[in-house]
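2024-03-11 09:14:02 DEBUG pipeline.ingest accepted 1 chain
2024-03-11 09:14:02 DEBUG pipeline.ingest length=412
2024-03-11 09:14:03 DEBUG pipeline.predict start
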Amino acid sequence: MLKHLWECYCQRMLSRARCGIFLLSLASIALIAQPCRAQVSASHPVNDSQDVTPEPAIPAILKAFETFEVVAMPAAHGQKDIDDLILSLIRDPRFPASVNDIVVECGNVRYQPILDRYIAGDNVPFTEVQHVWRDTTVQQMCGASGFYEQLYPLVRSLNQRLPAASRLRIVAADPPIDWSKIRSYQDLTPFFDRDGSIASVMEREVLSKHRKALMLFGVFHLLHGGGPGQGDAVTRYERHYPGRTFVISDLGYYGTGDEPFADAHVPVGAWPSLLRTKNSRLGSLSLSSFLPTPLTTDQDCNVIDAFAGKSKSVADQIDAFLYLGPQRTLLVEPLPADIALDHAYRSEWLRRMKLVGLPGPSTLEEVDAQIVSSAADPMLTPPPRQSASQEMELMIRQDCLSRKHPAANTAK
């Protein structure tokens, strides 16, 4: 959950009244205060003399299921182009023949029985099933997601047209938090290990049963050999189920500068495309060429680079990138109208945000003003390449110290 504690993500989403920082990011970033010990499950030889050949994204993703049991990719992080691609993928008539499950970050495992009934077509009110994605530990992202407001009803509708053996299941993987019982920051501590919850669900519901799954999570849950301590979710379950997951990422800030996108000969309009990293110059680059480097803490709560001392190429961690068009033309996902108009829910949403103390709107009036102002700029702002500010690093350190010495923590 160290995934979104960088200022760039917060600034990008705050401008649209939906800060993209995960609710428990501060807590989990130093949950296990030691450098990453995860090992890559399989080697990926790199030849930096080759350019990558773009492949049409949807056919390439579907074909990946012929080799892999799991295809993992980002979703619902404010990137409308990726979310639209996923919805198109799921609507492809070939999808149900290739996939059994869709495992989601924005899904509280506490509500899995309700979710199963809803997806199966039972008479479950939409306001009841909304708790599945609105009541997760990733409140700021999932609780304001237009993508999930569409995904769940879409799969329910598709299932009504499919034979029983081909129907899709959505599997929730976020810890079973009960927000009615959360009154303080300390009440959140049992739910900090989100990667552990994700890995456990994947092993129990998918991998042990040899089912095929589309896995929709932030990319820092998905890296081969990634994450601090015990590693991210994919790294954890790959210790028992190696070589079964194909990891896809967006390009992050790669190609957002004035430099030409020279690593792929992508014809004009030939997107969305999949760019494989294996045996390519693109794959020989480091992860920091694409994404902000995650931060963690050592045993003394000093803030450090989670990948410090690592010399991995990105091909060791990510199997393919999505090219969705020129980076500076991508769109941000707008806030759904039903959330913007739901005064009671937004009041509870703000209460949950304030429990963690992360920056963001403090009143519904401020949220309304940001929603209105965001309409003037629908473009997705690329994350800056600079490191986290001193203020952000101080927040991370303070969070680590507050959990090591909870009795002395009066700030929360």
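2024-03-11 09:14:41 DEBUG pipeline.report The CA atoms of residues 36 and 310 lie 9 Å apart.
2024-03-11 09:14:41 DEBUG pipeline.predict end
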